[in-house]
Write a structure and sequence with these properties.
38% of the residues lie in helices and 18% in strands. It is of the alpha+beta class and 145 residues long. The chain is globular and about 35 Å long.
Length: 145
């Protein structure tokens, strides 16, 4: 599995730390937040689908390069699957539920890119069938170096 450069939308926010380690609190707290989505995000975290849970097990507790990831993070009027606070990177898992949401996904990606966030799409089937390949792709992704 190779890294797809077309999945990166824009450079990270100014002030995003270039090294590994702690949360970029200033950038993190400056992100827009819709408090009405808080409980929905909690429900999604509890429910979780298999591909999200498998990837989360690779990312949580700073297992991936020491980076801090949030799962089902509210940003504006959207809930993103994963958000890397160190790199201002959003990971979106695209499964069958995204087939009918092309316009919605484009709107969300445009909004997130406008905030200076990098959006990387990963196919759910790739996580289910080739998790090691997905992790190798993420390791080779310049946005997550």
């Amino acid at each position: 599995m190779e890294y797809d450069k077309s999945s990166i939308n824009s450079p990270p926010l100014e002030g995003c730390p270039s090294g590994r380690g702690g949360r970029n609190s200033k950038a993190y707290l400056s992100l827009p937040y819709n408090p009405k989505l808080r409980y929905r995000a909690q429900e999604l975290r509890k429910a979780g689908n298999l591909s999200e849970v498998l990837l989360w097990n690779q990312l949580k507790n700073r297992k991936f390069r020491g980076f801090d990831f949030d799962r089902q993070k509210v940003i504006g009027d959207f809930i993103v699957d994963f958000f890397c606070t160190n790199r201002n990177v959003v990971l979106e898992i695209d499964g069958s539920t995204h087939n009918d949401k092309v316009e919605y996904d484009a709107l969300r990606d445009s909004f997130l890119s406008g905030l200076g966030l990098i959006v990387i799409h990963i196919q759910a089937k790739d996580i289910l069938n080739n998790l090691d390949g997905v992790m190798e792709m993420l390791k080779s992704c310049p946005a997550l170096e």
